[in-house]
Amino acid sequence: MDNEAVKQLNTFGGRKTFRFKSFNQRIDAIEIGVSRRIVRDFDEPEDHGSYFAEALDKWSELNCTKDFTDLSAQLRSHRQSLAQILYHKEEIVSILVSYLSLDHALVVESVLDLVTTLARDLQDEVLPYFERLVRQILPLIKVDSAEIVEAACNALAYLFKYLSKSLTKDLCPTFDLISPMLGAERQRANVRRFSAESMAFLIRKLRGTALQSFVSHTVQAMVECSPNRVSDFRDGLALLYFECIRNVNSQLHSRASPVLTALLRELYKEELAVSRLEDSATYMLVLSVVKLSLHYVKRDYAEPIWSTLLAEYDSQTQALRDGRAERIQPFAALLGLLSSATVLRKGSRISDYSPMIQRCQTAFDISHETATGDRRQQLLQTHEGSSMDAILTTSRLKWLSGLLLQCDMTHLLSTGRLLLDLAFARESLGSLLSMALTLARLQWNQWNQIMLPYLTKMTVRMWSTHRRPLLMFWTELFQKNLFSSKDSSISSVVTARGQILFPSPSQDTPLAGTSVSRLLLEWLAEPIEWSALAEQSMVIPADDDREDDDEELGLTGSESSSNGVVQALATKSAILTMLEHTVVDSQVLLDGLHMFATHASEAIAELTSKLASDSECLRNRPLGADEHGQGNSNTKSTTDVWPSDATEALGLFIPRSERLFWGPYYQLYPLVCLLGRALEMEAQVSHHVSTLDDTSKKALDMWFLVLQNVLPAHSANTSLVEGMYKLAGYLRYAVTVTKSAEKLSPETKQNVLAALSSEQLVLLVPCLEDNLLSTQPSLRLKTLQLLSLFDQVPAEKGGHNEKSGTEEETSCNVIQLAADLESIPPTLDTYKDRLNYMRRMSVFSSNGRIPKIYENVFPYLAIAQFSVNLSLIWPETIKQIGLIAGKNTGLFWRATWKQLRKFNDQRMLIETGLAPDAKKWLTGCRAQWSEQTALATQPKLDGHAMECPNLARFNLVSSTENSKFATADDTTATMSPHISRHLQRLMIESTCVDLDPVNYTNIHKQLLKMVVDIGAHAAESHSKQIVLSFLAFIKYDFGWTVAFFRRHEGTDLDLDLVDVDLEAAYVPEFRGLVTDTSSRASDAVCTLWLKLFAKIKNPQSLYQAPVLHSLFMRLLTRSDNGVQRDALECVLAWRDPHVAPYADHLRALVDEKRFRDEVNTLDLGIDGNSINVVHRKTAMPVVLRLLYGQMMGRSGKTSRKDGVRARRMAILNILVNVPPEEMRMFIGIGLESFRAVLARVTPHERLEGDHSELFSLSYDQGEKKTAIDVEANDALMDVDGEGDHCASPNQRDIECADSPMDSSFAMEDVPHKAQLSFFYLIVELVKQLGFKAVPVFHESLAIILSSVKLAQRQLDIANDELKELAEDRMESDDDNDNDDDDDGSVINEESDDEDAPDQEVGGPAAIKSNDTADIEKTRKNAAYRKDIARSVRHLAIKCLTDMFVLQPPSFDFTPYIPCIYNVVIDPRIDTLSRENTQNSSVLLLLLKSWSLTPRYFSYLAEYNPLTMRTLFDILVAPKVQPKVI
């Protein structure tokens, strides 16, 4: 089998002998091993004495193509002997070069083999042609043929091999030839690898100064390379040197050590004018070679690398000690290389750690020996911007960290502690803290036993001067669970309770006689002016590492100094975290916590009172119910809406992207959380204090202080509720446990029992029961646990247990059941347990024995289950609430409406805490923090492993921790911005318990579904509430029906009263604050509302029933099949005797499966049998609306292009026989959205008669009489079938237009999808109905011309924006040449606008941003608006053309022609000849329609003389296509 067939053999397994291989697979299988092929060198030519002649004969037999036959004929006369070949070498080379191209692809492989054999024959005689041949071969490496690529690489390698003696004399010119293929220019990955493999053979031939000169040349070429190519070129050079030093079978070549030494010597020459070693291209080149080599070799063969690195390290160390070294940069670079090599592949390439540990110790010794004097200044002298001292420190500690992570216990016990002694004695605080956190995050298993004692001693020693960075270190260590105390780690530093025991300070330290724990308590007790907190608005902290100003620290307001209250708040939070994990005397700690909690409570009470007095919103919180808990459906309560200052009081004035906290008293949220943590710690410490009576009194005092002054206003704070729960738990423990109770005085015991009595519970439940509706599961759980610690209220007598005859009172356990329910995690494994508890609660709540105080517990808790992200529990929840709805309708409705009405003003859904964007930010921070310690798969470098997951993780974590403590050595009194920002982030993390996003849209849908399934009767009893909510949703969220409200203003439907009620019941400014406003979400909610109204038994008695019926009729025209189907059910619920007989047929029209059969049997003629004449006036409007919606719909099984067309044709066919007035009614449905447009154009009757006028888009209305006021048009627009209800549109809409009024400005309010839908409708009407569509030509022309004028204006604006952007970017906009060319591409009329750019439409003056992202966003927005405008204009002109092609004899187009020229033709007459040479534009087709009949022919010449001239120019254009002629 030949070589080509073997390469296609199946090497992947399986039964097939051969298997297809992709191009990448075949490329990866190529191996350039020419330098190792020695068999060919011993072959001697048999004939002619020439390898070239033999190769030519061989290929003459194998390659029978015409190209090779011609090539062979040209070479035959020059290959008779070696001497003849030598004499004709120039001609032979010229012939071969001419065939080395893809123009002769079939002979390229053959020619490449001939080139190599020619070089083998002539040897150095080929040198003059070497560059020419190489330049011809190199492009072949980039082609998409694996065979040609392999042949080209082999040919190149053979050229190098045969000419190696001559080339190695000066290899630099050869490298310059190959450098573009190595990455100096953009190449594919395999090109770099093949080029490196081909040239590596030559580098091995270099010796001594020649090798060093070559390395210098390559490094200099890399440094001088274009900045955007340095990275790729560096990787190419790394591959080149790696191929040079690698050998077969995971071994290294004998030249590995000299080549690596040459690279290191070149690295020594570079001035490291960088802040990090990784910023040096030469260092990264050497590091890449080392990493590639260590990945490739096995441990037993890695000795050359380690011996070279350690030998160079010893040399540099000795030079520094002897004073011979002039710079310390080489030593720093070696430290970096050794630290990275140590961690690579988890140290698996190191056979003995002892030499490494000894050299690491030397690194600390050298640092100490050069730490002072002029010698240090000389060694650290670098270019501006460098920080060599920091580089040395980082490299030393990274090497130490790597050794500690990889070494076994034997080495750690012998020399590891010695290294740590040296590090903690000589290194700076910041570097040591970052190293400690790095090791903790990388989970060094000896961290507690070895590292922790050093840290505690250093903390005691340096606390007085560096307490802030030390506080930040310990806080992060504890808060992020980096410190874990296990039984095996208990020592003199860690107690059995898992707390850190700091040693006593020695007498020679500043802390002599004072412990760290007492200093923490003193720091905690430092007074703070909390009043400034009310004026603070914390924002999301910046993520970069710049020197922050006060705004970047997250502060706004009057207090913005470095010692601001927010910094103090973050410091207090960190102190509490550290105290929680530090050994402190229990009594002392209790006193300190009690004092802090007392001061915090008083400050919160004072600030709460101040904020409430300054804000009407906080004084009068909206309740939505009267004092009896029942909403008033007839009068508007003053507590139904938020006051005018709610936006500021809730923190909504802060930009969404910066908003950190929101909700009532959001300024105090972190302080209240801090109080809750203090209460929790006080309760925990109280268990360990011996003076139980005094401790209980303190706890009782704190309980009442918080209960009376803080909890009422901040009851929704999870941390505060948890703190109260822990405090109550301690009080219950004090009076319950026998040994504890005996130590209490009778008075104290009585006071505690009174505090936890059922009487106090009755007072507390109203304050906390709203927490059960919270979307935060932790808040619900802690609230229930707190309430469960009280003496429970007895269950009511009677109910289902009345016959039992027992008189014994039993406690109601509904609170405990609820707490047990919430304590079960919502997972697939445990959700059934949650449902069992819910069933028990529903039975208990519906049997009549639940106390009045507990009646809201189950409904609230059940409704809160809709926020649980587990859909399996939602149906069962609705079912169980149904038991309550059947027994107590009022209770069910109060609980449901309490939550449902909040969606009318979404500010009421806000719960004080982190804002949604802040949660996303914090979630992202936590995810990023976790990803840093994850072992992520690293990409390979052209098939070779270079990056190591372990090393990448180590470097990432190390650099992150180093940046945190960059200013840790600052001993100034003020806190650095860097530390302040980090402490603030830690505080924010400590305040947030629940980070899971809340799907409020789903909650809204589930609430509506619950009302639909089990609460329709209750909703009917409160019709005003649900009707107003529904109308508000339709008007503001379901924007498709906004024309309905405009249309009926001022009619007898009493929409004026509805609007007044809607303003009071709904706040549209905040729609979308927490819910999804996409069209898909709105359709789903609308469907549920319609299902609810379809279940109403007596819809005529509903509030504003006529408005609802008219709206349902409007919704019948919705193209969404689900909305249309449910709207039909709402109409049928009215039980109209003229509509009810046709209910089954009407349902068939909205049924995908029955639609076609129903349409085929439907006869809508006046004499047809489908609809009785008596019912026709009422039933036909319903039928026409359904047909219109089905005609415009594009969803369902028939949504394919052909299916849509067939459906439209079927619908129009059955409309052929309908009376003219009903046909006008059908067309009027499509005109509903254009009422404001038609009100501004010349009325149709003004265009007829002896005194006819010309059509105008800005008709002078005189006495405000509009086109729609005309009787004929009233009938046309009577889409409800109720002519008396149709009136002129709101005159304010007309008056707001520019003067003179132009209908194109009114068209701006019509969505482009509505315009496209109408144009598609007109196209189908003209096509299917013919002359029967003429009655709507006037309105259609008005809409078409208004739309074209608006589209042209929008095109001009978009073109100006794109032109300005192109000028700013110093480039031309190629699209502007064809901006006015209608290419026939039309955006679908049902396309989704959610993918469109979200930027506001603006003129050219609005584009002033220098930010690249903003500019690109603006460009995409302008391009999108341009495409929309072109699509609308194209389809509008097509409609106009179809109307002229119809040639209706009863319609006169003459009054419209001037306007058509002004709007459609004149703006594009100058470019018409250029646009139509290759294809006919829609405008040319319009002009063509005028030439089809003498009646319209005069339009071409009478209005603009340029029209005919332009048409002639098109005919004589040089490149005009025949189809255009």
What would the keywords be for this entry?
2 strands; two-stranded antiparallel ribbon; 71 helices; flat; 1525 residues; mainly alpha
What do these coordinates show?
The structure is a single chain. α19 (354-369) packs antiparallel against α21 (388-406) and α31 (669-686) runs antiparallel to α32. Helix content is 58%, strand content 0%. It contains 71 helices and 2 strands.
Termini separation comes to 62 Å
Morphology = flat
Helix content: 55-70%
Structural class: mainly alpha
Radius of gyration: 42 Å
Largest sheet: 2 strands, antiparallel
Low-pLDDT stretches are: 1-7, 38-42, 382-386, 544-563, 623-639, 800-807, 1262-1300, 1370-1379, 1389-1395, 1398-1410
- The residue-averaged pLDDT reads 80
Major beta sheet, strand line-up: 1-2
Number of strands: 2
Measured by DSSP, the beta-strand proportion falls in: under 5%
How many helix segments?
Answer: 71
In short, what is this structure?
This protein has 1525 residues and is mainly alpha-helical.
Strand and helix layout:
Blueprint: H1 3-6, H2 23-28, H3 51-62, H4 66-75, H5 82-87, H6 89-98, H7 108-122, H8 127-137, H9 146-162, H10 164-167, H11 172-184, H12 189-204, H13 208-223, H14 230-245, H15 256-269, H16 281-296, H17 303-322, H18 329-343, H19 354-369, H20 373-379, H21 388-406, H22 409-426, H23 429-441, H24 447-462, H25 467-479, H26 516-525, H27 565-580, H28 586-614, H29 616-619, H30 646-649, E1 661-662, H31 669-686, H32 692-709, H33 718-736, H34 738-743, H35 746-755, H36 758-768, H37 777-788, H38 814-823, H39 831-846, H40 857-864, H41 873-887, H42 889-900, E2 913-914, H43 916-932, H44 949-964, H45 977-991, H46 1000-1014, H47 1016-1021, H48 1023-1037, H49 1042-1047, H50 1055-1065, H51 1079-1094, H52 1105-1115, H53 1121-1132, H54 1143-1149, H55 1155-1161, H56 1176-1192, H57 1201-1214, H58 1220-1231, H59 1235-1238, H60 1271-1276, H61 1291-1295, H62 1303-1306, H63 1312-1329, H64 1337-1368, H65 1412-1446, H66 1457-1465, H67 1472-1475, H68 1482-1490, H69 1494-1497, H70 1499-1502, H71 1506-1515
Antiparallel strand pairs: 1-2
Helix pairs in contact: 3-7, 7-9, 9-12, 11-12, 11-14, 12-14, 13-15, 14-16, 15-16, 15-17, 16-18, 17-18, 17-19, 18-21, 19-21, 19-22, 21-22, 21-23, 22-24, 23-25, 23-44, 25-27, 25-45, 26-27, 26-28, 27-31, 27-45, 28-31, 28-32, 31-32, 31-33, 31-45, 32-33, 32-35, 33-37, 37-38, 38-39, 39-41, 40-41, 41-42, ...
